[in-house]
Every structure is written in structure tokens, then in C-alpha cells.
Amino acid sequence: MSVFIDRETRLVVQGITGREGSFHTRQMLEYGTTVVAGVTPGKGGQRFEGTVPVFNVVAEAVAQTGANTSVIYVPPAMAAGAIMEAAEAGLELIVCITEGVPVMDMSRTMPFVRSRGARLIGPNCPGLITPGASKVGIIPGNICAPGRVGLVSRSGTLTYEVVNHLTRNNIGQSTCVGIGGDPIIGTDFIDCLRAFQEDPGTSAIVMIGEIGGTDEQNAAAFVKEKVTKPVIGFIAGQTAPKGRRMGHAGAIISGASGTAEEKLAAFEAADIAIMRRPLDVVDLLKARL
Amino acid sequence: MNLHEYQARALLKSAGIPMPDGDVASTPSEAESIARRIGGPVVVKAQVHSGGRGKAGGVKMARTPGEAADHASHILGMTIKGLTVHRVLVVPAADIVSESYVGIIMDRATQRPVFMVSSAGGIDIEEVAAKTPEKIVRLPVDPVYGLLPHQALTLAFALFQDFSQVRATARMMEQLYRVFADSGASLAEINPLVTTPDHRVLALDAKISIDDNELDRRPDLALLRDETAEEPSEVTARRANLSFIKLDGNVGCVVNGAGLAMATMDLVKYYGGEPANFLDIGGGSNPEKVISALKIITSDPNVKAILFNIFGGITRTDDVANGIVAATRQFQVTVPIVIRLTGTNEEAALKILEGVGMRALSDMDQAVEQVVRLAREAA
User: Fold this and answer.
1) Domain co-membership, A161 together with A274
2) What is the pLDDT of residues A192-204, one digit of tens each?
3) Which end of chain B is more exposed for a tag (fewer CB within 10 A), N or C?
4) DSSP B61-126
């Protein structure tokens, strides 16, 4: 079992003929993801790698192939449009990998996505993977292994670091979700915690946050109230100075809010076991599984 | 990207927001002629990206054009919180009856622009928000429809009773929202919004931050960037497409990914060291990026040892290895380098490094412990 994606996932890749899109489509195919279609306006009728049919618009791809999930690798200025196109075409899950999407675009896009009943993951995220079943995005498949730990994270390579520790210590994962480091994102910690709590295939949850905003604090309150499975937490940026954006548009401590101390205190209050460094995930999980 | 006050003023003025006349000067004689043109007392204000300008002596009142020139010559070149003042704004000294705060921020919780207004103006709004949140009226705006007329009125009524002032203020709210939305700002504020003895409402000071993600499609706004107001190494980094922030420690860090870069800094501290920087070379590396990164880090004399922490996903670790080798051929790196590489094309990367007698570790904790020790020994 898993959350959001599984063997039933039928993927359409928006921006399949681009540099990033084509590279990662090959990786996803190699991993075993069911990639049923690609979309690049003007290239409809072609086939990607001689197999995956390419369409001009998403609606056509959905009608012809029964796609139920989209992954987006288009340039930042076109990302909001691509998300709305996917939502309008009736896709249940939309994963936007694109980094650098203007925040005002996302503010206008989110109500549209919600009104169509779609779930967006990202933007500026590595996507998600259900090891052994399906990978949507860019998380390297070879560092993951099937198992019962659900992982949710605001970051990309830090997720790989933690997953790598898990896999090397024979702790497999149900699903790993990278929700993205931007200020406005489609799926937050609470959405993922709720899904993992309800998923019979998940026995424990690892949550990797970072400085900036109040998402981790809200997630901790949710854990306290609704999550009965063990939760392990990490906050990156404990040494970050105030007022400086640490790469991610969301990772900035403004005023007194969004500090690592504040977030760790919220974790403690919710009985979330705190990782002082990525490696700690192994012992903390072993003690709780 | 933060705009200077004079740049933010220009945006608000072109949207029709009433502001006192004024202009920007980079020499005392320019300041003098602006003061003469304005006539009457003026205020000379340092233009730096920092709060607390008044406390630092960067805001001075002048009764005559000559006095304006004197103040300008003091303020120009002074340092406020590490930033050198290159320009001053000269504006008429306003007669003030009341001061209010009006601001819009892009709020992550509601995922919308949120208006914040308070009749406690002229001061640090974050302080008001923390200590007396009841003094701030908040209103989320639907970004699809923008600020609606009744919403603008509601906000204005939270500040004033006099209906002519309410009407004038509501209009300014709509204009401010338009600037916010049109420029893709993450913050736009008027602080203070003042009333005068003759019952006018004026915007006295303005602050705007533009979402960095807007700049690619808005070259007109990108031009407003003032690189003289930034740390030189951060300017070099941005030109090389690197995300870099200088810190005070002695362990230089080159990492791929913002989250891992932060976690690496934290781990340096965990093992008793102090990071010299935050540096994210991003996904999809090329050797040139690595060369630029090494150049920037080695130009900091505090750096006693350098750590590479690369977890290859989209980033190919052999690209990074090639960059390290090329950089050390181009210029001499005199401090020890500790390399941690794992992931995509790891075997090829290790071969490249072995070819020049370098070694790499695959474990992050080991690498950080080692680089902290080397930095301590060299210090």
C-alpha cells in the first residue's frame, strides 16, 4: 500500500520533449512507471522514444490514454498555465517539478486547482515515489526500497540523504513525497500526514521540514490531535541567519517567526521524535517500529 | 529583491498615489539643488536596504538647501548595518497629524495577498504584530478579482472617520494593490501613511520587495537591482547561477540542493565547527558552476577548509568531480578540501578524482567531522 501513487498510476508528462522532461521520462520508464502519454504543443502525433504518444494538449492525452496523473517539466513562466490545463482536463493528481514559478501565479492557480477537485504537489519539488511501483518526478529510484515508512519533505537532496540512510539500514518506504520549498504549494505536510495515517501500508512517518513559515508548527498540532503512528521530525536551517532566503523561496526567517527553535518546540510538544542530524532517523525509527 | 525607497516611491507615484515631491541625489550638490527646488525644510534620507536608518543617523532634517548639502555629505558614504550609502532621497518635511501603516504581503497560510492596516503607524509592524496583534486589521484578497471597492473602504474606515480621508485612503489602497499585483511583489507597504493639518492623506515612505521569480519575465524590474547594495561575493554567485549567502565561520560549504545545504551547515555546527557560507549549486550541475563556487569560497580569507557535499540525483557527481579538478588546475586552492560524493555516476566521479590524487568519502557525517577538524587545525 502507499499514498497518492501506485501501480494504477497512469502518467502524462507535460513538457516531455524538453531537456529535463525527456531525461526524467526515460528514468521514470526505466523505473517501471506507467507513462502513457506526453504533451508538447506543436509536437502532437510524434512518439517519445518510439513508444510514448505525444499530444498537443492534455485533454486529448487524457481522452486517448486514460491518464490519471500528470507531471510537469515546463519553464517557470508556463508552469501555472500547465497546472491549470491539467486540472481542467480532470486529472486527479498533478505534480509540478518546475522551480522558479512566480508566487503570484501560484496564488491565482490554487483556487482553480481546488475548484476542479485536483491535488497538486509542488511546485519546485522532486515529486514522489512509491518504491517498487511508481515514480513520478526526479527522486532517484535506486536509493529507495519498498517498505512501511512514509516520508514527507520540503526539500529534494536532503530527502535523498535521509532515504539513503533508511535503505542502507534495511528500512523500506511506503511512499516518499517531496512537497516543495516554495511559499505557496499545493499539498502540505498535513495533507501527507493525513494520507499516511490512513494508509494501512504505512507504520511510521518521517517529516523533514525547514526554517520559514508555520507549516511545521501546524503539522505538529495535527500530529498531536490526529496521528497515532510514530512520527520522526527534522528541521533544516538551525544555523541560518534571520532575513536571508536560504535558496528555497520559503526558507526565510522573518521577524520572530519561522525559526528552527520554534518548530522544534512544536515537534516536542506533539511527541514527534526529533532528529538532530539526518543519520539519527535510523535509530529513532528502529526504536519505534 | 528589495527596492530602495526612491524606487518604490516611483512605482507608487506612477500608480497615482499622492506622495510629497522629492528626488534622489548621489552628491551633496544634487541634494542641494533638489532642496532648493522643493523650497522650505526638507528631509535627507539614506537609501540602503536596512531598517533603523533614523537611529543610525541616516535621516536628517534640513531647513535650508545648504544644510541639505551638509547632511548629504555626511550621510553619503556612511555605513548602516554594513551597507554603504550611495544615494540620498530629498523630500519636503511634512507637517504630520497622524501616522498609519498600510501593507500587503503574500501570505503563505491563506495563499493570498493579505492587506494589513494599523492606525499604529510609523513603526516596526512586525513588533506591533507580535505584541499587540489586535491593533492590526487583516484582509485577504482574492487574487483573481483583486481588491474590491467595499474591501478598500472597509480597510480605510479602520484608519479614519473623516469620510473625505476615508475615500482618499480607499483609493490609495486600490492603487497600492495594483502596484503589488502588477509588479509581482511579495511585499508592498506605505509606512507611514500620514494625514496633514489640511486633511490630506499622503504616503510618506514606501517599501517594496519583488518576488525573485518574477524577474526573468520582468526585465524592467530586474533593472532596479542595486548590486552596490549587496555583498560582492553574493553578486558574483548570482551571476554564476549559484545561491550563496556569506556567513561568519571558517568551513566553506559547496552543496547541491537548498535543504541539504542547510542540513550541511547544521551538521558542521553539530560537530563543533562554524559554516562560512550557505551555497547551493542547484540541480543539473556543470563543471563551470563548481569552478565559480570554489572561486567565491576561496576569496573569503576566513575559510580554513572546504567541504563538498554532493548527493547526485539530477546533479551528476562526475560533473562536480570534473569541476573540482578543473578549478584546482586554474588556480591554487591553499586550504584543504574534503569531498563527499554519492549518487548518480559516483564511480566515474571517484575515478576522475583518483586520477589527480584526490579522494572522496561517501558518508556525510564522516566528511563533516573531517572538515571541521581540518579547519580547527588550520585556525
Assistant:
1) yes
2) 999 999 999 999 9
3) C
4) EESSHHHHHHHHHHHTT-EETTEE---EEEEEPPP-SEEEEEEEEEETTTTEEEEEEESS-SS-HH
